[in-house]
Amino acid sequence: MNKLSILGCRGIPGNHGGFETFAERLSRYLVKQGWAVTVYCEDYQGKEISEEYWNGIRLVNIPVPSATASATILFDWKSTLHAAKEGNLILTLGYNTAIFCSWYRLKGLTNVINMDGIEWRRQKWSAPEKAWLYLNERLGCLLGNHLVADHPEIADHLATRVSRQKITMIPYGAERVGAADVSLLTPYGLNPGSYSIVIARPEPENNILEIVSAFSSRRRNAKLVVLGNYYPDKNNYHLQVQAAASNEVIFPGGIYDADTVGALRYYATLYLHGHSVGGTNPSLVEAMGAGAAVLAHDNRFNRWVAGPGACYFKNEAECAREFDRLLDDAQVRHSMKLASLQRFREGFSADGECQAYESLLKQALIGNFSEFSQPQKIRPAQPEAAPVGSSRSHR
């Protein structure tokens, strides 16, 4: 039996972010293919390491005092020590504590690292934190047996550190949302087509302030839903976002039910995506899978993912103009929705993503990555062809 240990996320079931959702999706897929999968999970209640099984996946719960950065480092170290004793193939998600991967090298274990985005460029980090992340990116490139990039631009960036022979490009996938329960909108006072939505951490590089300010620049007779569990608090940036919001902007908090989030995307007039740093963002792919009309920040990462059928903005003024134009043009929005589905079908299906990972991990088990020596050509298999508008339930 092929055995895999997944480290680097908070744990599953996934209700925190992209890595958790991905870890859950890949684990469930691999278990169905006959793999034995272990996922390491943060445990804020327990006092000792414990184990349980969930949907055939072995969960190793590592006790940590809180969800702080220092506690996460402690969690990663404890997980690394435990996983090294298991002797399984390792899949590490992210490079934030890649220095610990030296332990796998000492133990002779194969470690595939998903290198995520260029984390050290994010504005939220202090100079020492950026230095730590920069160092660990370099160490991840050195210590990993093989690297996964989720975007061609990330692959190009990593290729300045290591040989392209060591890099495989596999974008994030998502489930197709072909139908959704409209009643899930009711608790939030929303109706289909009456709102736009943005789902992102409220950080400067995600342009939440610019989006909210642009939407609030005049009366829209519609809503903007800003999804996240960070409002309200005393963070200065978050307070700026709230201060810029008109009474047509709503902050429903964090929503982690997949069906509800899928419905919010599915019935939205526009999906706003302000991310400006990083590679293939899972939330953007999920919006495309829901057939959302995408209005995204104009950068090379988003343009590759969303494609030419989406619309883009560089700043607050451009975002406001796009709101003015798109909210009044149903025909253009319909074309954007079809373009999102087409781009999604071209290479962002969940099954295709999992198939690509399984192929790579099988090669890792035998220590042969030659099949993946041309990373720019590695793409998830195209999903089964289906007519636009066909109904398929969310996961």
Automatic annotation (TrEMBL):
InterPro entries: DUF1972, Glyco_trans_1
Renumbered residue ranges of the record's region Disordered: 374-395
Single Gene Ontology MF annotation: glycosyltransferase activity
Key words of the record: Transferase
Organism: Leptolyngbya foveolarum
Segments forming domain Glycosyl transferase family: 196-337
Entry protein name: Glycosyl transferase
Residue intervals of the DUF1972 domain: 2-175
Superkingdom, taxonomy of origin: Bacteria
